[in-house]
TrEMBL record:
Main location per the UniProt record: membrane
Keyword hit for Hydrolase: no
Membrane topology: Multi-pass membrane protein
Keyword Metal-binding among UniProt keywords: no
Domain of life, per lineage: Bacteria
Protein name as it appears in the record: Sugar transferase
Any single GO CC term annotated in Swiss-Prot or TrEMBL for this entry: membrane
Membrane spanning residue stretches: 12-38, 44-66, 87-105, 111-128, 293-312
Pfam families: Bac_transf (PF02397), CoA_binding_3 (PF13727)
Coiled coil: none
Domain annotation Bacterial sugar transferase: ranges: 286-473
Length: 479
């Protein structure tokens, strides 16, 4: 089977290699100048020639280490931390080898030189890859630099995979065909998705036919049962040499990587899934972190808070704070505090505006809500109205990061597993806040909250806080 993968992969890898080389040359050059200045380099003296040679050897060795550790492989490009992890690993290996060789040959290599070259080079490499990711994400959002995917398996799972990939937007994949190898397809059968025309093929087509029709360079096997006994192994052999990526979907959705472990049992690769981690979100470490950060933020933004209170009092009648009854951890209710952004009595007018509801499910959202005051609109745009919730955090009623605090009326409408959102403290921010805020549908908001509950970690909290700062500054989805 002859096939060539997308040309952009080779182009991207080549450009990344060139960028890496430029960064390493600059890092070693700057280290030389920092250690010896410009004069020894101009004079072409002993130190100059020696360190120019050393810099060249280090830069080449470092660049080769990045290649050997596969830092430019297409499968790690664009998403995840594996690319960064490999760069860090290659850098430390290079640094270790330089130190060992220097010790063995008894070379008096300058520590100041190494102290500049390696941190500067590592930061430059990581920054270069980060910038390339941003560029690649924009390209993928525009429909470029993507890989076409043929899903092998049942239509139900294929539909879910397609919808999930489409929702991502920057994954770099696009499902262009489905092949069900153990049943006949219907005439002109397509995957049932709005705005998408993904052909569904069956036994009347071979794998080669399906790849040609879908123009796929990637295969995702969603249901191995459709391939029969040893079918996956035969499929791998059939794709051998065709430059087509083969992946298997374990149908494990919204489970974070640290909870998934590959185990070999009786020579069979099995996925071991750890239990949900929500219990750890109630331990003392998170409580101490929440209250310490809340205290710090309150102290830093206290002048702003005072200015906001004065502005609210001067521009509209009524209290400065708005108290909203919310349901917290284990179903206990509490009064969530916010700066008042609406006219007094706005809650009683909600029924009049239901026809203009922009929200979904039990949520009420309205982009141009007439009840919002002029000052309130500004506060909402930058989420300043949520500052008083830091008091809720200090009282132990909320967390800095967690699911969105629901109204009692929302909780009454919960069905199925949605109630698991109440297993941890609700947060000022969360996955819902950094993934679209008010632009999210009800289903997406619930999915993100459950994802957080099941896959909690302290590192994830820190990541969400960082992403929240960026989302607030961009004012995306806030109204």
């Amino acid at each position: 089977m002859r096939h060539r993968g997308p040309e952009w992969r080779n182009t991207y890898a080549t450009r990344a290699a060139v960028t890496d080389a430029i960064v390493l040359v600059l890092a070693t050059a700057v280290a030389t100048v920092c250690r010896f200045g410009f004069e020894p380099i101009r004079s072409a003296g002993h130190y100059s020639s020696t360190y120019l040679l050393i810099s060249a050897i280090i830069a080449v060795s470092w660049w080769l280490a990045l290649t050997l550790y596969g830092t430019r492989e297409p499968k790690i490009v664009g998403e995840g931390v594996d690319e960064y992890r490999r760069i860090i690993r290659a850098t430390f290996v290079t640094f270790g080898c330089v130190a060992i060789v220097s010790l063995l040959i008894k070379s008096d290599l300058s520590r100041a030189y190494l102290a500049v070259a390696f941190p500067l080079g590592l930061v430059g490499l990581l920054l270069g890859r980060k910038l390339r990711r941003k560029w690649l994400a924009k390209e993928r959002q525009s429909g470029r630099r993507t890989s076409n995917v043929l899903v092998i398996g049942g239509t139900r799972t294929a539909k879910h995979i397609t919808a999930t990939i489409d929702r991502s937007g920057t994954s770099g994949y696009r499902v262009t065909g489905v092949w069900v190898p153990d049943r006949l397809e219907s005439l002109n059968e397509w995957l049932d998705l709005p705005g998408r025309f993904v052909p569904v093929l069956g036994t009347s087509r071979t794998l080669a036919d399906a790849l040609v029709i879908s123009d796929a360079d990637t295969v995702i096997v969603s249901d191995t049962e459709h391939l029969g006994h040893d079918g996956l192994k035969s499929l791998a052999w059939e794709l051998e040499g065709a430059d087509i990526d083969l992946m298997v979907s374990p149908n494990v959705i919204d489970v974070a990587g640290p909870r998934i472990h590959l185990r070999a049992v009786a020579n069979m690769p099995l996925l071991h899934l750890e239990e949900p981690r929500y219990a750890a979100a109630s331990r003392w470490g998170k409580v101490v972190f929440d209250r310490s950060l809340a205290t710090l933020v309150l102290l830093v933004f206290s002048p702003l808070a005072v200015a906001v209170m004065i502005g609210i009092k001067l521009t509209s009648r009524g209290p400065v704070f708005y108290r909203s009854t919310r349901v917290g951890v284990r179903g206990e209710t509490f009064d969530m505090l916010k700066f008042r952004t609406m006219d007094v009595g706005a809650d009683q007018r909600t029924s009049e505006l239901l026809s203009s509801n922009d929200g979904a499910g039990p949520l009420f959202k309205m982009k141009d809500d007439p009840r919002v005051t002029s000052v309130g609109r500004l506060l909402r745009r930058y989420s300043i109205d949520e500052l008083p919730q830091l008091i809720n955090v200090l009282k132990g009623e909320m967390s800095m990061v967690g699911p969105r605090p629901p109204l009692p009326s929302e909780v009454e409408a919960y069905e199925g597993n949605i109630g698991k959102r109440l297993l941890v403290r609700q947060g000022i921010t969360g996955l819902w806040q950094v993934s679209g805020r008010s632009d999210l549908t009800w289903e997406e908001s619930v999915r993100l909250d459950l994802d957080y509950v099941e896959n909690w970690s302290m590192a994830r909290d820190l990541q969400i806080i960082w992403r929240t700062v960026r989302a607030v500054m961009q004012t995306k989805g806030a109204y």
